[in-house]
Amino acid sequence: MVAGSGDGSGGPGITVNPNAHEIGDPASGREVFRFETFGNEGFLTDAVRLPQGVAASAVTPIDALGIGLSVDIDALDTATKDTIAAELRTDL
User: Fold this and answer.
1) Does the reported pTM lie above 0.85?
2) Maximum distance among all alpha carbons in the chain?
3) I want to staple 64 with a disulfide (CB 3.0 to 4.6 A). Which of 24, 27, 30, 69 is the partner?
4) Residue 87, class by beta-carbon neighbours within 10 Å (0-12 exposed, 13-18 middle, 19+ buried)?
């Protein structure tokens, strides 16, 4: 049941999701959320030219993390992991 704020609005006191799904696989959903691009590769690489912009601005891996970029550390190559480790050893 939904325990609302008492005024019938279903406000901040909600304790149960009233729209819970009966079926679904949270692990599969997490994989889609993390890895699916929904066709944006062409837009980000060709139209926006994101890789060239990042390279031109000399963004370091630590800078990228600092602005909120999420990184799957296990997906990185050894050279990038070493770069991040070296930068973390400095006085950021």
Assistant:
1) no
2) 57
3) 69
4) middle
pLDDT over 50 at 3, yes or no: no
CA distances, 77 to each of 7, 12, 74 (Å): 54, 44, 8
**Residue 58 burial (10 A CB sphere; 0-12, 13-18, 19+):** exposed
CA distance 44 to 46: 6
DSSP track, 12-34: TT--S-TT--SS--HHHHHHHHH
In tens, the pLDDT along 33-68 reads 777 878 888 888 888 888 888 788 887 777 888 888
- E-assigned strands of the chain? none
pLDDT of residue 1 exceeding 50, the answer is no
Domain ranges of the chain: 38-88
